[in-house]
């Protein structure tokens, strides 16, 4: 990976959805510490007065650190949906998460209308096995009611825990009259980020579940195995992929692009542009490529699909993506806690901000859903409380579907009663077969057919 300008600080950029988020880990020296402006100290007098009054007059003894932590959480909760305060234990867990392994339930969550909402369960985790579904509202964790004042990080911390420990989730599901109670056993969530196989002779399939430290390396190994099987085309499945490391997203993308191609750039409040370029010429830079996405494809997934779409390298198929285009910077604090602060937005090579809009597929193919799931709410970035606006698209909050893509309507038929079909994957296979047929046609024959 190559940056347009080398930073003086070391950093690690993550883009993960829900209790993960797009984040730049920053290790700052003394020069980089956050300092308040002079007039800010005047405003702090009020805070000092309140803290002093609580300590002197509250009916029960108080602990200064708990009061200060509560105040800091309150400050961050007035900002956008992805900014938050992380106590030391939460910050440590987040650092562990970058390795692709953590103790918990395997839920991607967000907030909507001051409620904790499931975006998607991670495949193969306790939450997925128990039958928790996208759109479910989490009312309680054990006996603790989640109120509008419960932050996202607090809720996540309640659901995390040691392997083998039990937790009860009380959930409200759309069109189910009474709350549902799920007893789950926490497990070590190890996310196998790359899965691959040959679907049909010549057609390879790779599914990325998240973008972790080893994802690009594992992808390279999978590509090598698929090439040994003589594939001539590939499907890259990013559906329900909440994101991961930005470095990984760039390294994944560059395996399909030529060296030097722009993958993504970010801009902060000062307007400074930092570019991330493909540093290696891709092993699969020429073969036909289909990228599958849906409303659960977020952040890093949107960077990869957006870059390949902008360069005309792939046909994007599926439904509109989640639409998270903001960057969060992790600012470590002196006591081991940290701030997760939104500091920038990211843009595709053509300068598109996907904040609240997501990536519009080239070909829209809607999935066949079971009858009980057809009316389940779909959560996207623009539905989150306090989400950021899209400065290039003032109408982004009102966008309901892609503007001008080719739309496949065959997926809207009733599903067969015996099984659920993956019509999006089927369409991708059909497109690749057609692609190869038309590629092999003599130019004159193709021109004659087009003229008819």
The appropriate CATH architecture of the domain at 194-326 and 345-375 and 388-440 is Alpha-Beta Complex
Largest sheet: 9 strands, mixed
The name CATH uses for the topology of the domain at 194-326 and 345-375 and 388-440 is: 2-enoyl-CoA Hydratase, Chain A, domain 1
Q: Give the CATH class of the domain at 194-326 and 345-375 and 388-440.
A: Alpha Beta
Helix- and strand-based class? Answer: alpha+beta
Average pLDDT confidence is 79
Give the overall form.
globular
Unreliable spans: 1-36, 400-420
Helical content (DSSP H or I, runs of 4+) = 25-40%
What is the distance, rounded to the nearest whole angstrom, between the alpha carbons of the first and last residues? 48 Å
In the CATH hierarchy, what is the superfamily of the domain at 194-326 and 345-375 and 388-440? 2-enoyl-CoA Hydratase, Chain A, domain 1
Question: What's the β-strand tally?
Answer: 24
Oligomeric state of shown chains: single chain
> How many separate helices?
10
Radius of gyration from the CA trace? 23 Å
Percentage of β-strand residues = 25-35%
């Amino acid at each position: 990976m190559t940056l347009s300008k080398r930073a003086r600080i070391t950093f690690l950029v993550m883009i993960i959805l829900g209790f993960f988020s797009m984040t730049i880990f920053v290790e700052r020296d003394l020069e980089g510490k956050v300092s308040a402006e002079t007039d800010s100290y005047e405003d702090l007098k009020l805070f000092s007065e309140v803290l002093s009054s609580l300590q002197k007059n509250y009916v029960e003894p108080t602990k200064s650190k708990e009061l200060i932590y509560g105040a800091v959480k309150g400050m961050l909760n007035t900002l956008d949906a992805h900014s938050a305060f992380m106590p030391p234990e939460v910050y440590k867990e987040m650092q562990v998460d970058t390795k692709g392994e953590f103790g918990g339930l395997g839920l991607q969550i967000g907030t909507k209308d001051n409620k904790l909402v499931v975006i998607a369960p991670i495949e193969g985790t306790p939450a997925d096995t128990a039958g928790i579904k996208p759109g479910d509202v989490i009312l309680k964790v054990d006996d603790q009611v989640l109120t509008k004042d419960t932050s996202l990080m607090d809720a996540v911390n309640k659901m995390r825990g040691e392997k083998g420990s039990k937790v009860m989730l009380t959930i409200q599901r759309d069109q189910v009259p009474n709350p549902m109670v799920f007893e789950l056993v926490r497990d070590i969530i190890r996310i196998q980020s790359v899965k691959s196989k040959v679907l049909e002779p010549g057609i390879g399939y790779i599914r990325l579940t998240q973008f972790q430290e080893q994802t690009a390396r594992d992808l390279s190994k999978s590509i090598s195995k698929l090439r040994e099987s003589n594939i001539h085309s590939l499907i890259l499945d990013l559906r329900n992929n909440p994101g991961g490391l930005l470095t990984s997203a760039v390294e994944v993308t560059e395996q399909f692009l030529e060296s030097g191609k722009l993958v993504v750039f970010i801009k902060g409040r000062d307007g400074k542009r930092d570019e991330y370029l493909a540093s290696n010429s891709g092993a699969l830079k020429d073969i036909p490529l289909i990228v599958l996405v849906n409303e659960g494809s977020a952040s890093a997934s949107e960077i990869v699909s957006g870059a390949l779409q902008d360069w005309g390298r792939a046909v994007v198929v599926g439904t509109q993506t989640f639409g998270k285009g903001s960057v969060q910077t992790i600012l470590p604090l002196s006591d081991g806690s940290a701030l997760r602060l939104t500091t920038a937005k990211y843009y595709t090579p053509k300068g598109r901000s996907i904040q609240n809009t997501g990536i519009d597929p080239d070909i829209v193919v809607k999935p066949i859903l079971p009858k009980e799931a057809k009316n389940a709410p779909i959560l996207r970035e623009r539905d989150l409380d306090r989400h950021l606006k899209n400065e290039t698209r003032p109408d982004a909050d009102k966008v309901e579907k892609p503007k001008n893509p080719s739309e496949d309507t065959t997926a809207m038929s009733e599903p067969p009663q015996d099984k659920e079909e993956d019509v999006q994957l089927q369409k991708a296979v059909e497109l690749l077969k057609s692609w190869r047929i038309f590629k092999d046609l003599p130019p004159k024959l193709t021109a004659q057919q087009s003229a008819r």
